[in-house]
Write a structure and sequence with these properties.
single chain, 305 residues, alpha/beta, 6-stranded mixed beta sheet, 11 helices, 13 strands, disordered C terminus
């Protein structure tokens, strides 16, 4: 495992607004790193500086120990915005991307065909891009990012438009790429998916890094353990139980953060008295809980309670 990407104290200004304010982190080969935060947190601007689309106003970005321009050919990039030609046929789109990169379409055809099959798009190779679903268009863009066998893959909201089956397909693929030694950096606001996929986490808020490190360490930084309760019935009362410091209560699943010294068994007894409890588990806090704690905000359910 070796360092592939280093981001050193980068700043990006838009007028008087600091979209990125002193962000630093590293990405290693064979690891999946998640750059996580709300929309508008500075994630996309950071990725654009990593890929050379934008230049930092301060700080520096290094790829493989060199500047971005010298190593850009070793990087595959999936932008958040779709950059596909809607009237172009799917296979032709990938071969056109090869031409833009200075690669002969003939030499890249086997790779293009292989990725279309890997993404279960082979039967749609002659379809126009505009005829595809949003999820399949996203898979075409992913194929384009991976077409040149890059050593580092940078993905901005890779799950956009994907249904649950394709989310699993892409998750499995990214893990395979990491196992082959590729460095993967993905940006997303979907913290639950990042928790299933990422080895390293960089949480950003208002242009700053608020937590960073291996997934387990970042989750442990959240302090008190949480309780996950799966249930049938109306669980709104769970947020107001004694010993519950904060809560996120959904239709049939709740995540409760316990106060210091609280007894999980007492919470269980109270829940059993009013709900049909299907699962009760004491776990480390979720990334969402850690993030909300780091930025000093309560979950919506807690605020409502």
């Amino acid at each position: 495992m070796s360092r592939v990407l280093s981001v050193h104290d980068v700043v990006k200004l838009y007028g008087k607004v600091k979209a990125v304010d002193g962000v630093s982190f590293e990405v290693a080969s064979g690891r999946i790193t998640g750059l996580l935060g709300r929309n508008g947190a500075g994630k996309t601007t950071t990725l654009r500086m990593i890929t050379g689309v934008l230049h930092p106003d301060r700080g520096r970005v290094e790829l493989f120990g060199a500047g971005v321009a010298e190593a850009r050919d070793r990087l595959g990039y999936l932008p958040e915005e779709r950059g596909l030609y809607r009237k172009m046929r799917v296979l032709d789109q990938l071969l056109f991307l090869a031409e833009i990169k200075g690669k002969g379409p003939g030499g890249m055809r086997p790779a293009a065909e292989r990725w279309l099959k890997r993404f279960e798009l082979w039967e749609k190779r002659d379809a126009k891009v505009e005829e595809l679903s949003k999820g399949n268009q996203q898979k075409v863009q992913l194929a384009g990012a991976l077409l040149f066998d890059p050593d580092i893959v940078v993905l901005d909201e890779p799950g956009s438009g994907l249904d649950p089956v394709n989310v699993v397909l892409v998750r499995r693929l990214l893990r395979e790429l990491a196992a082959e030694g590729k460095a993967i950096l993905l940006s997303t606001h979907q913290m639950g998916e990042a928790e299933k996929l990422c080895d390293e986490i960089v949480l950003v808020h208002a242009g700053k890094v608020v937590r960073a490190g291996p997934l387990a360490e970042v989750k442990a930084s959240g302090g008190a353990n949480a309780v996950h309760v799966e249930f049938e019935g109306d669980g709104a009362f769970l947020a107001s139980l004694p010993g519950v410091a904060s809560a996120r209560v959904d239709t049939n699943l709740a995540e409760l953060r316990l106060a210091a010294g609280a007894d999980a068994q007492e919470v269980l007894a109270a829940a059993v008295g009013r709900l049909r409890v299907l699962r009760f588990e004491v776990v480390a806090p979720s990334l969402e809980e850690v993030f909300l704690e780091a930025v000093g905000e309560a979950p919506a359910a807690e605020a409502a309670a």
